[in-house]
Amino acid sequence: MMEIVYGFIFGFLSSVGFGIITNNPRRTLVPAGLVGALAWIVYIVITWFTDSLIMPNVLGAIVIGILGNLCAILVRSPVNIIYVPCLVSLVPGAIIYDSMKNFTLGKDMLAASGFIKALTVGMSLAVGFIIAEAISNKIYPSLKRYINKKSDQKQF
User: Fold this and answer.
1) Interhelix angle for 79-86 vs 54-75, to 10°?
2) Dihedrals φ, ψ of 76, to 5°?
3) Of 22, 39, 76, 156, which is the most buried if we count CB atoms within 10 A?
4) Could you give the C-alpha distances from 4 to 29, 34, 40, 136, 148, in angstroms and in order?
5) HSE on the CB side for 83, CA within 13 Å?
6) Predicted confidence (pLDDT) per residue in 34-56, tens digit
C-alpha cells in the first residue's frame, strides 16, 4: 500500500518537475502531475502481476493517452504539453544508461540486451499511445463540442 502512496507522490513530483524544467504553462502542471502519477501507479500495480516489460508500459501509456487528452481539452492546451512530463517516469533512461556503460566497458552482450529492453519499452509506449488515441478520437469529440458550446454561451 505504501508503494502506491509513494508512487503517486513521486510520479506527481517528477511530472510537475519536468513540466517546470521544460517551461510548460502553469495551468498544465497539476493536470500533468496527476496524469503522470496515475500512470505510474498503473505501472506499479501491473508489475505486481507480471514480469514483462511490455504490459506495464502499454497500460501506463494508455492511461497517459486517455487522461492526457481529457486534461488537454479541459485546460485548453496542446496534448503534447500534457504528454511529455507524464512520460518521464516511464522512459527507459536507466536501462539505456546501463547499456551504454556496458558498451563502453566492452560488455557487448549485456549492452545489446539492454538496448533491446529499451527498444521494447519504447515500442510498448508507442503502441499504448496509438491505442489511447484511437479511444480518445471516439470519445472526446462530443466533449469538445460541449465545452466549446459552454464557452460560446459565456461570451454573450
Assistant:
1) 140
2) 55, 65
3) 39
4) 21, 14, 9, 26, 36
5) 15
6) 999 999 999 999 999 999 999 99
Side chain identity at residue 143, one-letter code: L
Task: Specify the DSSP class assigned to residue 78.
Answer: -
> What angle is formed at CA 149 by the lines to CA 146 and CA 151, rounded to 5 degrees?
110
- Helices 26-49 and 79-86, packing angle to 10 deg: 50
Distance CA 14, CA 36 (A): 8
DSSP per-residue string spanning 40-62: HHHHHHHHHH---SHHHHHHHHH
Burial of 137 (0-12, 13-18, 19+ CB in 10 A): exposed
List Cβ neighbours of 124 (8 Å cut-off, separation of 6 or more): 53, 54, 55, 57, 58, 61
Cell of 65: 493517452
Residue 68: name the closest of 49, 48, 60 by CA: 60
C-alpha cell of residue 72: 488537454
Rounded CA-CA distance 102/47 in Å is 25
Q: How confident is the model over 49-84, as pLDDT tens digits?
A: 999 999 999 999 999 999 999 999 889 899 999 999
This prediction has a pTM of 0.86
Is 32 within 8 Å of 24 (Cβ atoms)?
yes
